Amino acid sequence: MNAHVLISQSCVNDCVFCAVADKRRSGLFPSKDDIVGFIRDSVRAGEDGLNFSGLGEPTLDPFFEDYLRTAKEAGYGSIGVFTNGHGIDTEKVRKWKSMGLSAALISLHGLERGHDASVRRDGSFKDGLKALELYTREGFAVSVNTCLTRINIEEIESLCSLVDGYPVRSHSLSFPEWSGNALLNPEALIDYVDLIPLAERLAKTDFSHRFFSNAPPCLVGSRVDVSRSSISYLDGNGKRIVSPRDCNAMDSACAMCSQKLRCPGIDRNYIQFRGRNRAPPFILDTYKKKELFMEEHQAVRGHGSVSGHGASGAKLCVIIKPTSRCNAACAYCSNARHAPTLDMTVELYGKIARAVSAEAKRRGTGQVCILWHGGEPLLMGKEFFRQVLEGTPSVDGIRLNHAIQTNLLLFDEDWASLFREHAVPVSTSVDPFDDGLRIMADGTPQFGMWMERFRIAAEGKLRLGAVFTATKAHKGKAVEVYWFLRNLSVLVPTGFGTRVNAVYPEGAAAESSYGNLLTAEEHLRFFSDLAAAWDGDGRSFPLSPFSELASHAPLACEQDGQCWENFIGIDGQGRISACGRMLDVGVFWGELGEDGLGSVVTSEICGRPGKRNDALSSGACAACIAWDICHGGCPGVVEAFSGDALDPHMYCRTMREVLLPIYRSRK
């Protein structure tokens, strides 16, 4: 394992792809004492090589020569510097060599035009070329690094010819890391697919010392950096061990690939910010051929969560909202305006478990889906859920299948371990497009923290789902929404389903001045574009409300016309309602009593919504061709829009013109 230390606080260049620019701007730098201690500790720990890189240009660090002396005294076998060559001359090269420097990795990002434009400084190419000449002439172990951009990619073959005129050890052609400046200059960065024609052209040249870095071998061939070893690393955040794959992910389609051990994977931030419509095409092809997840993992359905995803075959789904507390303040939260309720106790859950098991027996089913919702259910704490999951896996022979809908903001490895142990699918809500919609309780955007927690969940080998809520802010962005959700599936090796809902005027969405609600025309256009993107991608992952229509899976609760038969909602005080949405509205049937659900869930109460079906099918919806896949929509949502649950679906055209053709296409 090599030691790698980031020094310097300044740089003369401002590279469009600089991965550490954000760290430099933050002003978080290691101290001189930290660096000296790291150099000495690393060699004692067995690291033979030391590399100086920079939060800026390392040779501009005022203590650079002090660090060289320390490293030489410590006894490293090799000492290298990653440099852009600024300010270099023969005297410095020879002096640094005498102080122990033995290797140089020189940045050359194209010929003069492409290089200077990529680093945004005139004269930088001449600095780099001069460094190449001086370091090779003085006998250093010299390598060259080129970060590939749209600015320089047409110059790469000529650059390779230039580099081949010098005695370099290696020349790496790097797919950019999507962090730092890369996120601010995406128009300058290449896509994965751009590597393919470049690799084909370069395959005809001498490639003995040249390789692609941070690039899948399926795109560029066998000449890839196969180093998988970790490095000991120090920057302003302290010392840690870094793996080449830390920022990347392997696609589920890569599971059986013979090149898997040689592959760096796919940059997670690329997936997040650019989308997979121009990502490695082999993955898209594999998904299309195998139709991964479509049969095994049904789409997230029901209340915008994992109700169907987590309890295949269950005829009873109980949505439990154990707390109304939340650590977020989302602009469209349907529960935001209601008064806080008491948190559920473990004892009350025990009564609920016995009651719903008795109800399942009465209905003749052997299992129940229990969907934990909120508020934010993770605020109940790990001990609460540990007692719940370990205490009642089944009651009186009825299997209780748990699932959870969470914003993930409290999620960590311990939660992942607990849910994995008890096979609990996890669904979450996300929106990377508008920082004003999903915010923390203190008003700061959620997405950065959410993405960190989502990665923990994905790497925790959990079955995951995600819900996206379409609002006025997403007009014209349906295709971007599609590829974002599609790209999340790349990070999840164990099955991933998604659900897209339109916001409805309940809670915060009804009260905010945000202008959230979609008009009928906007709704039609959004879901039409979303469906076209899904269809054009080969219907390659579960996306509700489309995938269940295209297969023979059960419809979502708001479309099947039988929601009152299959769902019950219970809050933290034991109050009972028709479902989670009705709990949000505050419409309760009663409370959990000594006889369980018996006195509340009666045929008279449960049959009331069925009368809506009769009224609509013989009235406003009598001639509708989409009745079988709509049934008038969710009565709670319809009432939120119009004030009358007996009105038909407010987005009828979307049902007829978008969803019905998908339903008719099923085989």
> What oligomeric state is this?
single chain
What is the total domain count? 2
Give the C-alpha Rg.
Answer: 29 Å
At the fourth CATH level, what is the homologous superfamily of the largest domain? Aldolase class I
Count the DSSP helices: 26
Shape: elongated
Summarize the biggest pleated sheet. 11 strands, mixed
Q: Could you tell me the number of beta strands?
A: 22
Q: Which structural category do the helix and sheet elements fall into?
A: alpha/beta
Distinctive features:
single chain; 667 residues; alpha/beta; TIM Barrel; 2 domains; eleven-stranded mixed β-sheet; nine-stranded mixed β-sheet; 35% helix
Map the helices and strands.
Elements: E1 3-7, H1 21-26, H2 32-44, E2 49-54, H3 64-74, E3 78-83, H4 90-98, E4 103-107, H5 112-119, H6 124-137, E5 141-147, H7 156-163, E6 170-174, H8 195-202, E7 210-213, H9 217-220, E8 231-235, E9 238-242, E10 248-249, E11 266-267, H10 268-273, H11 281-290, H12 307-310, E12 317-321, H13 346-363, E13 367-372, H14 382-391, E14 394-395, E15 398-406, H15 413-421, E16 426-429, H16 447-459, E17 464-470, H17 478-490, E18 496-502, H18 508-511, H19 520-536, E19 543-544, H20 547-550, H21 563-566, E20 567-571, E21 575-577, H22 580-585, E22 590-591, H23 603-606, H24 608-617, H25 635-642, H26 652-664
Parallel strand pairs: 1-2, 1-8, 2-3, 3-4, 4-5, 5-6, 6-7, 12-13, 12-20, 13-15, 15-16, 16-17, 17-18, 18-19
Antiparallel strand pairs: 8-9, 10-11, 14-15, 20-21, 21-22
